[in-house]
Structure formats: structure tokens, C-alpha cells
């Protein structure tokens, strides 16, 4: 089976609790409630997902106690499976930022790029920083660098900023341990290591097209000078300052941060960032190369490559290679790790509530119904996953909600597919989840304000970039589906 258009006849999903169109109306009603509450009533997505789940179950004809049981079961399993990984990822990202390791990565990559290569270097910076960090955290971290490099190079804010945004967004949509990919992997029971490897393979050409190539074009119709929002006072330790040309001559025009010499170096920081990636890829490779499950090397890599273990090891190692190496005391390390948790409380609740919403959808049998319909219509599962995620993304403005809902609806469609094919479905959903960011997306306003653009300019740059990123991702995933 070298395409994803053949669906298995058997499914372990529950039987539909009602007629076909009755369940479709129930699912659409639940999604409409979520959209209306988030976009019109401005209700927090956590509450909107609870209301949407209740709507789906009640309209489908299920008893209220049954709906409550389904929601709580889904909420708990998602919090246990995905929530722990999000927490560990946040701790790692906080250590990376507070130790100066993120600054070291940025300064080294940008500092070795010539003027013509700066957009490509910024795409690489965005991808590396975006690998362990949430999009919003990475954006806030990179904005001072984007401003400074744009001013020094004279290329303008858009040709420098768009590639960095493309790198961040692609990692957010395609590569675990970000919440979106993790949710889809958990829901569809995909192999995390294999999905990570394929996600990186999909992200590279996607970033090139939506980042440096599109950035050069967008920079021609939207010309903006970099603001001085993050200019530091002279002499501030660790701040990037605007020094004179004589004091900062370099091919790229970028100035390294003035940090303590005790800070982690580039090689050590990069090795720490890639540690969990290598462990998870090692597990995936061992499963392919080593046939005997009982071999000691296979058993060791299976344990070390488990996402929970890999991220836990990464956090512990980062405490020494990043935290202690930068001069953090035990009290400072404790404070750093603890301060990473409050900002992700909302994300954890939304993702877990999305798991509850997913379970209600599953228990109504809508997934089984869609599987039967798609099988009869011979619809590509990759295309269907992308379309569902894209529609929900446009309607709700949330990539996470789009991923949760689309993966819930796709459950019955991946039975019988190979591990590689299921991973491609996950990536197709991830590509659809970043489609056409507009006014109902918090990221739209975040980029608009940081870049100092009008709404129209934001549509021409950020929204267009996200759309190109999404469509290019779909094309690359579809191409891989022909050979996997």
C-alpha cells in the first residue's frame, strides 16, 4: 500500500449512536458552538471546548451522564499522555532562555552569515529556537534579534522577520514535542520518533519556500523599518545594544550579546537542544533496524527514546549544561524551572479539554461514520485531514483546537495503515492547522503589534506566509505519501 487512499474495513471505534446525518449535525453543532464562543462571545477556549463537547453528545442523543463520563475520560488520558510532555518542554525552554543558551544559538548562526545569507540564517535560527519552544515564547525571544539584524543589514524588517517566523511556525505545526503534533500523535497512535523524523523532513523545504523565498517577495510590497522597542540601555549585561559601526564590524551586521563568559557555548547548547531529538530518533531507528524486541540495545533505546524519558533526561541535563554552566545556583535553578509552569496552565487546560471533546466525538461514532464515507468515496486521507484542520483553523483561529478536532474526526480513517502512513496523516493535519492565520488568531495580533504593521499589511505578510507554509507542507506530505 503506497498511498493513503485505501482504508481498512474493520474499525475498533464505537458504533454510531444515531443516523449518519444526525451525527454530522451533532458534530457541526459542537464545532459551531466552539467557534461562536471563542470568536464572538470571547469565551476562553477551555470553557468553549467543554460546551462544544456537551453539545455534540446531547444533540447526538446520548445521555448526559454518558457525555460527562466520555469527557472526563478523554480529559484525564490527554492530561496524562500529553500534559506531562508539555510541562517538561516548557521547563527545558525556560532553562534555554534564562541561561543565555538561546542567545548563543542566535548570535553564532547569524554572526557567521553574510548579508545575502541573512534571511536563510534567520530561518535556521527560527527553526532551531522553535524546536524546543512554543511559538509565542520563540517570537518574543527572537524579536530583539530580528530588529537589530534588520537595522544593521538594511534589508528591512519583512525579509529578515518572515524567515524567522516561518521557522518558528513550521516547528510548531510539524515537530513534537509541540502540543499540536503531540495531540495528533496521541489521538491517532502514531509513532513519535518516526513522526519527528518525517516532520523535520517536511519542515525543511516548507521553511525554505515560506521563509526566505517568500520573505524576499513580501519585502517588496511591505517596506517597514525595525522599531526600537527592545533597545537596551548602554552597559546592560546580556542586552544587545546598538553600537557604532567601528565597534561592530561584521559581514552580517549582527552584534553578539554581551553575556557572562560562563554562559553555555554554542556546541554545548546545540547538543543539549538536540539530545531529546536524538534519543527519540534512536528509538525509531532501532525499531526499524533491530528485529528482535529482546535484544539489549533495542530494549535500552526503547526506554531512552520514550518521549517522557527523553524529555526528562533533557531537562535534567539542561540543568547542568545550561543552568549550572551559566552560573545559576540551586535556588536560581529551582526558581527558573518553577517560573516556566504558570504560563502553560492555560495550554494544558485547553489541550486536556480538547481530549475530552475528542472522546465525546469518538463515543458518538462519528469517526466510524466518516471512515465508512471516506472509504466509499476513495478520498485521500492526507487531503481529508488537511482540509478538516484548515477549515477548523480558519473558523476558530486556534491551531491547537484545529489539530485536536481534526485528529478526533480522523480516528476511524487510519486503522490498518502503516506506521509511516499514520505519521503522514499527523503531519497533514499539522499543515492544515497553520492555514490562513487571520483576525481570530492571537498570533495574528502578536505579529502585527511586534512588527508595527497595519491589518492589511499583516494579511499580506504573516497571513500569506502561514497559508504558503500550510499548502507547501501538504504538497510535501502528499509527495512522501507516494513512496511511504
Automatic annotation (TrEMBL):
It is found in: Cell membrane. It comes from the Bacteria. One of its GO terms (cellular component) is plasma membrane. GO terms for molecular function: gluconate transmembrane transporter activity. Pfam families: GntP_permease (PF02447). Residues 233-262 are annotated as: Disordered. InterPro entries: Glcn_transporter (IPR003474). It is a multi-pass membrane protein. Keywords: Cell membrane, Membrane, Transmembrane, Transmembrane helix, Transport. Its main location: membrane. The chain crosses the membrane at residues 21-40, 46-64, 71-97, 117-142, 154-175, 195-218, 266-290, 296-320, 332-353, 373-392, 424-447, 459-483. Coiled coil: none annotated. Belongs to the GntP permease family. This is Gluconate transporter. It comes from Gordonia oryzae.
